Amino acid sequence: MEEAEKIVMVRGFRASAVAAGLKKNKGPDMALICSECDATAAGVFTTNKVKAAPVLLTREHITSGRARAIVVNAGNANACTGAPGLDDARTTAELVAKGLGLHPEDVLVASTGVIGKPLDMGLVSAAIPRLIESLSSDGLTSAAMAIMTTDSFLKISQFAGHAGGRPFSIQGIAKGAGMIMPDMATMLCFITSDIAIEPDDLKKAFYKSVEKSFNRISVDGDTSTNDMVLVLANGMAQNGRLSERDFREFETGLGQVMEELARMIVKDGEGASKLVDIRIKGADNARDAINAARTVANSSLVKTAFYGQDPNWGRIMAALGRSGIVMNEGSVDIWVNDIQIVADGLGMGVDAEKRAAEMMTLEKFTVTVDLKQGEHEDQVVTCDLTHDYISINADYRT
């Protein structure tokens, strides 16, 4: 998606972005998304025991199942900042609420950036009136740009559907490129829809979609303090109560938006040059299937082999062996796309590996492992590990 493209937002939503001075490059670093009316809301947050102040505050505010606005800053995570950091998050919500004529609990707060540095509330306070003044129905692109940190491209996804004979839309923006690891991926994601939906139905569709998207990706095995996925649905489609068919269409659309954003995050993995699907078949149980996929996807040795276009299946076998799953080394089959390189635990030879190496020159390929222990399957999307990943993260604060 080109940076200059302006996108009309979902009915009843407006967004804006400004440069508050929080980013090193002095570019846009604060964004605001606002619904014209009350919206049903749901959220999922980092499982890291170290949780940033905005995560703690937004978890508290969203318990009502309702919200009107999301304010987010980049350049400073407001994490590991103690009681003053939590006060700063509350003040941010209060300032936005006052400017919009809302209750502070109607405002959800998110942050991303450097950990352990106090948030400059002078800059934040000065920026909020400008954010409110510049709210626009075509402000989504600007908001998506403002939340980027080490991202190299915008992450926006859309879906259009029908419910109760009325058209509805779903839009999502996300940021994330490093510190990406289930559960959850290290990222911020904000989704809006004009569908009318009950809170329990929204949560049901939302949690299922998160599990199949953002909890199935990995870049580097690190989980952040600030992970957050939020969804607001303001009901302006006026579709009435959802039928089972309507709900399935919304669930499909929500899943599609989340999966597209999740794959964008992995594609944009810091320094990444390859997008790789790790698919596990024939696992003894569901937990083994996901554990096997995650262990392979997070292995630094496997990921550097992807970068080197080396079908070093021994590294995959070693990762499987330490994943704690039920397996028999002599039963494992491994493919790179449609090239089988391992059959019943033994290599298929040099010619097969040469053909697999050709597949690994592609920007996108799939590694499939058949454990032949049962009927369970799962997958994780990962990327390679390159020299640039080290350079980006070595220079992150300097």
Unreliable residue stretches: 178-182
- Count of β-strands: 14
Q: Main β-sheet, in a few words?
A: 8 strands, mixed
In terms of DSSP E residues, the strand content is 25-35%
What is the name of the CATH superfamily of the largest domain? L-amino peptidase D-ALA esterase/amidase
- Structural domain tally: 2
- How many individual helices? 11
What is the CATH level 1 assignment of the largest domain? Alpha Beta
Q: What structural category arises from helix and sheet content? A: alpha+beta
* Principal-axes shape call: globular
Distance between the termini: 29 Å
Radius of gyration, taken over Cα atoms and rounded to an integer in Å: 22 Å
Series of H and E elements: EEHEHEHHEEEHEHEHHHEEEHEEH
CATH topology of the largest domain: L-amino peptidase D-ALA esterase/amidase
CATH architecture grouping of the largest domain:
4-Layer Sandwich
Helix-residue proportion: 25-40%
Mean pLDDT over the residues: 90
